[in-house]
Amino acid sequence: MSDSIVNVVRAKYGQVAKSALSTGDAGVRAVAEAFGYSPEELSSIPAHANMGLSCGNPTAFASLRQGETVVDLGSGGGLDVFLAAKKVGPHGKAIGIDMTPEMIARAKKNAIEANLPNVEFLQAGIDKLPLADSSADCIISNCVINLAPDKEMVFREMFRVLKPGGRVAVSDIALKKKLPPKLAKDVAAYVGCIAGAISIDDFRRGLRAAGFDAVHIVDSGSDLNAYAGIEGQSACCSPAMEKKTALPVADESCCGPTCCGGTKESAVHQGLTDVLKQYNVNDYAASVKVYAVKPRG
């Protein structure tokens, strides 16, 4: 089950990575702003770093300082990596980890546009980080841990990579109550960050079991229905993307009946929109801010 869902997630987010979604799309921009990004932040980084996949803004509460090393788990197009890189400055470093090769390719293209020498993107799963022990000051993540089948391993890897005294500042989806059986088994809901989420209590217990102290999880109060605003926007390998960004695209058009679910939305966004039409997910899940600290000794 875990291997199959990982393959589905990788494939679906690979499609998003090859899409034209960007801050230039009103719905994508509205999602980012609904989850805490300011217009100034969005305009300060490449537009194609934002694909409307966030559920919070971890850089807003990570208290990043000049010279620090920050690691972003599930970095996508680089949105939070670029914002973090600006905060840690030229003597710091921002490292993005993503398991999807298309996302890594998109992020690297965006990095050229951003002209930030202190960023790096590495392809890997967030449950097996290609980083040395005690090498990071802060770990951030944005709506990705819920997609990992083995969250306990992710928490242990976060603990391993952080320096003593290092901290976690994560935005994620967590459950307020048990999902209906049909929703819990819905693959689109899993890919859309709902069905793979764990309860707030389990999130807290998992971090503490990995060794973290000062674990604090806060419901941000954001409306998860914000994702529905992306419906209908051209996202499927459109010519506009190839012309404007030179991002890697398939040799032949993927906007036919076998791509992106046969629609002009990305597979991830379309699937989540379908879920939102059937359920008020705010009744079951929440966008949360997660804080934790690795003890100094």
User: Which structural class should the secondary elements be placed in?
Assistant: alpha/beta
The largest β sheet comes out as:
7 strands, mixed
Supply the number of helical segments: 11
CATH class: Alpha Beta
Describe the structure.
- A seven-stranded mixed beta sheet has the order 3-2-1-4-5-7-6, sandwiched between helices.
- Helices cover about 35% and strands about 20% of the residues.
- The protein has one domain: 3-Layer(aba) Sandwich (Rossmann fold), CATH 3.40.50.
- Strand 2, helix 5 and strand 3 form a beta-alpha-beta unit.
- The termini are far apart.
- The chain is of the alpha/beta class and about 300 residues long.
Give a quick summary of the entry.
The protein has helices spanning 2-17, 26-34, 39-43, 79-88, 101-114, 151-161, 181-184, 187-191, 200-210, 239-245, 267-278, and strands at residues 69-73, 93-98, 119-123, 136-142, 162-175, 213-219, 285-293. With 297 residues, the protein is of the alpha/beta class.
Overview features:
297 residues; alpha/beta; Rossmann fold
Strands, helices and their partners?
Elements: H1 2-17, H2 26-34, H3 39-43, E1 69-73, H4 79-88, E2 93-98, H5 101-114, E3 119-123, E4 136-142, H6 151-161, E5 162-175, H7 181-184, H8 187-191, H9 200-210, E6 213-219, H10 239-245, H11 267-278, E7 285-293
Parallel strand pairs: 1-2, 1-4, 2-3, 4-5
Antiparallel strand pairs: 5-7, 6-7
Helix pairs in contact: 1-5, 6-9
